[in-house]
Write a structure and sequence with these properties.
By secondary structure, this protein is mainly beta. It has seven helices and 32 strands. The protein has a 20-stranded mixed sheet that branches. A four-stranded parallel sheet has the order 6-9-13-17. The chain starts with 7 loop residues before the first strand and ends in a 7-residue tail after the last helix. It binds calcium ion (CA) (2 copies). The site of one calcium ion has 6 residues, from loops.
Amino acid sequence: MRGSGRGVRWVRAGTAVVGTAALVLGVTAAPVEAGRPGRDLGRETLRAGDGWAALDTGTTGGAAADAAHVFVVRTWDEFRAALGGTAARGDTTPRIVYVEGRIDANTGPGGTVRTCSDYADPGYSLDAYLAAYDPAVWGTETRPSGPLEEARARSQATQNAQVRQFVGSNVTIVGRGPRAQLVGASLTVRGSTNVIIRNLRLSDAYDCFPGWDPGDGSGAWNSQYDNVWVVESTHVWVDHVTFDDGAHPPASLPERLGVKYEVHDGLLDITNNSDLVTVSYNRFVDHDKTMLIGSSNTRYTDRGTLRVTVHHNVFDGTTQRLPRVRFGQVHVYDNHYVLKDPDDFLYAWGVGVESQLYAESNVFTLGRKVPVGDLVYDWGGTMIQASDTWVAVGPRRPARVDVAAAYNATHEPDLATEVGWEPVLHGRIDPAPAIPALLARTAGAGRTG
Ligand code: CA
Ligand code: CA
């Protein structure tokens, strides 16, 4: 696609990032996308009625961008410049950013690879950190503090400045062709409205400097980055994205201080008064904490927000938070959960404080039998409506189950089985037994049709 043959010309980006006058390819004519001839994913908008993001004004992303704000990017610096660089947060200029090929966020100008040791503060080493905060030495009562912890935090801040990119309002980020990928990036939609992210593979937002929290269960490593974090933002559509851990899948992570050294946070977290989000036709692959909606039990300002629709997604090899919900009215329908190894599975639907989770026509394909009631975990909520759920174990055909009744039969206190609202904004609800085959063809990056 590079060159002048299709009405493409080189332009200098309006904003250069961190010391580079990044050249960004500007596009003056609608580029032709994979799939139907003449189709331009960058100009497409959310269909009327397609989930919560369709409420009122709907979600159009960067569809109104003028020619000067349509970009095709091939490097991390170009990507950042196209979004407005360090000024992206708060920017409202309509933009379309086409991602071409594989872009690694841990690279500098000219493609220089940045490794964890490049970010490490002189005062930090993992060996010293492990020795200092080993529970046998530090105990389990207080969080790490002192010069080593401060050096870890400085190291983390350096990597954060490299891999976290804010996304402003009225933006569409879309992969060009079936193989567009961002590796190591944390896309942060903060304080924005009207954002579309489509047809991309987003992999491995790894943290070089996980922090030790001795008070989290029997101790836990906590990492910073979600592949996508929607925070304080409204009208967001995430569609046909493949989310995964790339080169650091869960099975590859070592144990440190006796527990898994987790280098990731969420794949797609939606928090802090975010509202009106539609999550459709994505694949969430091989990850632990997958989708958090609402991040605090006591953030009462979240009441009335966190309305999210989650439909036609595949959750494959994901451990928990599929999603985990606080406060929001969340509609979860026509998703396929593929949980091959029940030993790596905790729960699918997290019923958190004041959540109103409405699930229908979802399918679970389990490697072996999991008690149906264990598909739900009560994180302090009181209700879940779950109808037309189907479970297949091994090669057997799926059978319809009543998840809420099964939960209540084996847990106390019971959860109410009605949630006080009825989803209105949704497309066609496909029959659950057809969902696995349908989504095998249509969910994830490169399958926009
Ligand atoms: Ca998170
Ligand atoms: Ca009970």
